[in-house]
Specification:
This protein is mainly alpha-helical. The protein is built from 4 helices and no strands.
Length: about 100
């Protein structure tokens, strides 16, 4: 795939997916400003991107333009693993009641 066809593909993406491609493209530039966090958390682009990423994810999921995903056999496996992990967290937290355990 050459750059021209790749750029055409990026332009054809919906906004619900285009933000992620843009995030990946600007991430190497944003990572260079890591040391700005020493001066102020508000002025650090890395923190700003870190806060905006979950916001964009939730906006994309809430959008009606995002097509519905098809479930597969691995979804059942991962759902079972997640349920087991959450159950394990509750059991471990009940044995040792502290925020550190959680």
């Amino acid at each position: 795939m050459n750059i021209k066809s790749w750029w055409k593909w990026v332009k054809s993406l919906q906004a619900t997916r285009k933000w992620f491609v843009i995030l990946i493209l600007i991430r190497p530039i944003v990572d260079n400003f890591y040391d700005l966090k020493k001066f102020s958390a508000i002025s650090s682009p890395l923190y700003i991107v870190g806060v905006l990423t979950p916001v964009f994810i939730l906006m994309s999921l809430a959008s009606k333009k995002l097509p519905a995903s098809k479930s597969s056999g691995s979804d059942v496996l991962m759902g079972g693993f997640t349920a087991l992990l959450i159950f394990n967290c509750f059991v471990y937290y009940s044995l040792e009641l502290s925020v550190l355990a959680l």
